[in-house]
């Protein structure tokens, strides 16, 4: 896969992911306004269990199918690729049913473990009900995921991107409408409303699955042409095929579990530790911010890295299979630079404007606590972005075990330091433990990539310094424009004031960063010849004047 093809596929997938993330951010404002801190905490209790069981139910098969198909397509063996897709589908149907039964049955056991204290706002019965409602999504999402893996293995990113957007859109509409009617029209219970809010994952998955089915029917003829022209297959038996698939899948399930596992640690320690340290009255508020509110904003810049993680695996696998070391190193270098180029300014802007963004989306009454936690949480986005990308690279160069070691090393740091840090620093301690865990994983992965891919970080470090300087200048600009706007508009007076200040400051900061990147031709070097052409055209226009 050429460098331009990598960027094109990444752009399509990134666009879909970003739209999905933005939709996921926008709905938070009316949702939080409807259900409050107790409701968002209850939502997080249920959804946290769901994400863990979803990762276990898929056991990394969707991404493994993508890698498997990419590998055998490169060999021209489309027949083996199609057989693997069918095998993956059957496996996901079975795993989805099993995981649904397990989560539904274990809900009464998992609920009290999360609360940590039966005197908090939500009851064990409430949490049990929410976990059971969200468990239905496990029947559909694994099937949808493996179809996405099939398309990505065929270097087709559009079905995944469009289905992500439709899935999110259907989920959000069902969530908001059901919660509004239960609470405002029917005067129903909060626990019932949150139950339907989590059930929206099942409804959204049906929408995404319908889109993927439409794409499959639309492209069935072209896929069948490839199958008809398949080279003689490698005579791999079903047993060998499953063994190879599981070899690929193992690392993916662990790496895919990164965020859920880190959140899982907090789900069983955060409330309990805060209560033990005399913070019972704000325990669920802190839990709601760290587990639901802050990640909704922080994960937006991370979505770029997620898109790269999805796109890199088949691309790097092909370069590695073809023994094209030069192309492999070019793709690694380009991936690191583009991820840092796009993630850094988003993180700096989010941290600088944390209080304003929090006032814009959430409760003004808890601005001091929420803004502070969001500011500390924002830098974690860079660490997770590089964790995702480095893990994808390690898997692409057949170093799956190293990706698993990286995850466990970081998770061990989180486990060891989480309770002491929460005891010493409160909610910020949980964020610090998360950052320390991801940092440990990234440092380990960086050294492993250097060793096994013969990759030099010299160019990346040089350009990363330049990007950091641009981001620093952007941050100063945001501070200045923020101080100026504060003379006329006080963001603490209400949501609309905070929205106006946030948008103006964000646009101003982005303009600074993009202008500096454009004038230095950094954007052209990273994002392709189109930007270089625009710069040359601009310079020619200046000379003619």
What does this structure look like?
The protein has two domains: 3-456, no CATH class; 457-540, no CATH class. 86% of the residues lie in helices and 0% in strands. It has 22 helices and no strands. Helix 14 packs across helix 15 (367-377). The longest helix is centred in the middle third of the chain and has 42 residues, at 280-321. The radius of gyration is 24 Å and the shape is globular. It is found in: Cell membrane. It comes from Bacillus salitolerans. InterPro entries: PG_synth_SpoVB (IPR024923), Poly_Biosynth_Transport (IPR050833), Polysacc_synth (IPR002797). Keywords: Cell membrane, Membrane, Transmembrane, Transmembrane helix.
